[in-house]
Every structure is written in C-alpha cells, then in structure tokens.
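ugh ok so i messed up the first submission bc i forgot one of the chains. this is the corrected input, ALL of the components this time, i swear. 521 residues overall. if the numbers dont match what u have on ur side tell me asap before i send this to the collaborators (the ones from the other lab, u know who)
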Amino acid sequence: MESNPSNIGHRNPDIVSSSYKDNSGYVFLYEGEYYRAVSQAYEKEYAQLMQSGLYDSLVHKKLLIAHQETETIPLENDVVRILYPTQIPVISYAYEWSFSMLKEAALCTLNNALEGMKFGMMLKDANTFNIQFLNGAPILIDTLSFETYQDNESWIAYRQFCEHFIAPLVLMKYCNASLNKLMLAYPNGIPLEVCKSMLPLKARFNMHVYLHIFLQNRIASKPTHNNGNTKQYFSKQKLFTLLEGLKSFVSSLELKKAKTIWDNYYNETILSQGYLQDKKTIVNSYLELIPFQTLLDLGANDGEFSLLYKNTSKQIIALDEDRNCIEKLYRQCKQESVQNILPLICNLTNPSPDLGWNNDERPALFKRINADVTLSLALIHHLAIANNLPLEKIISFLHSLSPYLIIEFVEKEDPKVQQLLANRKDIFDSYNLQHFKTVIADFYDIQKETKITNTYRILFLLKRKG
Amino acid sequence: MTHLLYIDPGSSSMVIQMIVAGALGALFFIKNGWYKIKSFFTGKKESDNDEMTTL
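and heres the new structure output, hopefully the right one now
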C-alpha cells in the first residue's frame, strides 16, 4: 500500500519525487543536502532499529548508511525525527551497473535482511533503488526499510527481491549480459513472466532458477482460494533458510565471459608505443592546472585514465557503454580497494532518461552528475563519424557537463578514423581541426593545446565561457 | 495480524515461500547431513525457540 503523498507534497516542496511510496517517512532536499524525515507511523520501529543494536551493527558492517539525528530543521506535522545521512556523491541506478555491481547490491540487501533477523527486525522492501554505491561498495540507503519481525510471517519483499535482483541477474547470466538494460523498461522489477519467457530451457534445470522464477510465476499466476481465515505458519527457521538459500544462489552466479569489441583495447589496439604514456603525461599536467573535486571520464574504457587518480580525495565517475570494460574496472577497484571511482555503463548516444511517475521519479543520468572537469579522450571520432553527430551538438553537450573539458581531437587522417570510414561514404567534410576550433570558440576558451607526438591527435584543455 | 504493508507481496507469496524454503531446506539437508534436517523438521512447530545462532 502506498501512502498518500499529497499532504507531504504540499507541506514540503523539496521532497524528493521518488519518495512517496512508504508512509514511514520521506527524503527531502534542504540547502543542497539530503535529509530523511521519520514520520509518527514509523516512530516505534525507528526506536527499535536504534535501540536494539541493529543500527550500530549494520553501520559497523557497512551494510546501512550512517546518519545523525539533527534538530536544526524544525519538525512539521507528523514528523518525529529528521536524519542527516552520509551524503552519496553520485546516485546511480541498476540499469547502469555491471553484473558484479548488481550481484553485490543483491548480497547487500540479503545481508541487511539476515542481520535484521538477529535483532527481531526484517526488511520490508528489497528494490535496487534502495542500494547505492558509496566508497566503492553497495550500501542500503533507506534507513526506514526495517520493520518489526512478526512471528510466523514470510518475507513480504520476496517477490520484489526476485523481480529486482534475481530476474535481471539470471537473464544476464543465461541470455545476454546486456539485459540489465531491461530494467529501464521495467524500473519496478522485471515481471517473472517476462523473465521466464526469455530464459533458455537449461535454466529450468537450475533448482534456484526454477523455484524463484518458474515456480513462483506459475503459482502466482493461479487464482488463490485463500479466504484469509486460514492461519498459515512460516517459521523463523524457514525464513532464515529462504534468505540463506537466496544468498548462496546469488553468490554462485557468475557471468559467462563474452568478448566485446572494446575488450583489451589498450593491449591490442594502441596506435603506437609511447602514445598512451605521452597522453597520460599531458592529461596529468592539464589536471594539475585546474581546481577540481569531481572528474567525469567519458568513454573510460577499463579506466586507464580514471585509475590515475585512484585513492586520492577526488571523486571519479567512469562511464563507458561497454559492459565488460565497466565490469573489469569495478572488479579491479574492488580488488585494489579503490574507493573513489564509480564505474557506470552508459551509451552516450542514449544515456538513461528520466523515468517513473510523471517522468520525475528517477532522474536522467546526467542530471545526477555534477562534475568539475570532463575527460573526453579518443571519443569524438566515435560520436562524429560512427554516430553522425555534428561537432556543434557534441561540444554543446560536453559544455553542459562541467566547467572544464579535456578533449582529444582525432583528425581524419588518423588510422582509427580511416577504419571508421573504411566501409562508408565520407560525408564528413566539416570534420576537421579548423572547424572543430571554430565550434569550441563559441563555448570555451582554449587554455592549453598539445599535439601528441607522431599521431594525428591533439589534446585541448578548455574552460567554459561565461 | 494485519500490520501495514506498503508493497504487495502477491497473494500466493506465503505458499511460494513455503515451497521454496522447503526445497532449499531439503538441499541443505543433502549438503549438510542428517543432523540439520532433523532439527529442521522437528523444530518447525516451535519457532519461538528457534535461535539464529544454532542455525
């Protein structure tokens, strides 16, 4: 049952638009930071969360976001507490995560539920939007997700967990790893019927897939004859078995390795010895000249340049459309305990749009990113030649992202551009350095310009005009 | 007990979870041997006494 948000909406216009489903409280923006209001309906459970030791245990295990109670904002109507949680630098959604990211988000959800059980509480919802990446690892951000565990009750969020986590994970494993994109079509979870219809026969022979997807779908689609009087009994032991079973299944899921075109880009397709090193030196020298906290790396591949700033105080967002690259970068960051890089899957020609109710519930990707500098290295020819985008549109888009831009212009004579043009007519008369400079002059001041030795590639450090 | 549910768990949710938990329990039995399955079946009517630490 969703709460009636209208009262809340009138009372506080800065309430986050996705925060309407639960009557336990809501998230709102105050002076540029996110806060969570706890309403009277949740007061008792909030007290249990805090006093039972569950909150401390979850925060200690980095399963739940930490918060402080604040009294600087006045309480209104039925609000009993205002929480100031640790702020998440970049909000990301499951359709932008790689397989391992989704898998670990699922495990984080289950670990929260299992920990809750130890303290007499249970997760009342299990959706991907409640999980965010903080310091390189998934964490539950909805502090109000815990309810008092009622004896003999099954897990209310079981189906939601299956639709949000199990369905996309098994589709990625058994069908195609790019099917995380299906979550864009079904942001409230992939219906089990849809999932079932896509899975190959062999998936049925996995007992977990059969139970959580096929059987659940079959039973759920039958009309029930339960008139509500039948007392059903679901022991704590069974609940524990269910959660542990899900956890062991999710842990065992691995992606079949399928090579994509950008795999091993740096190993196999580097233009010349020294090119990469020269480029790194130049980019580094540019970055030293400007003040920045957040760097957006577009077309990051497996993070060769993002990793230059690993374990610094900078926040790095690495975007690439290639799922294998993002998966590889996430794994590397995890292995090396890199906390400041967030890799996300993003096709720049079709970034995640505004989704949900009134197209206002889940903002588009670039509305969630607030960068100081953008890296656009060896990217422009893919947008301009492979995707026919005029330079004006590309530069205008980059201009909207950050005050500074480091961009590599790849001239038409470059072997990589020639490769893109090999099987098509060259209709790109305006794709040349001179026109590029004319276009950027409308948007940016050129701070630095460096030609990479023995290549047809030029690097620019640009500062936004105005 | 009708406490507030803000998401719809599905009308057959309990039935499904009974079957799933039962099947998973059986799987654990195969993996872990007689002792655990014994406590699993004999303990199911006494959920109040279930201790997570013993699982």
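quick check: Confidence is low (pLDDT under 50) at residues 45-55 of chain B. that seems consistent at least. Chain B touches chain A at residues 1, 3-25, 27-28, 40, 43-45, 47-48, 50, 52, 55 (CB under 8 Å).
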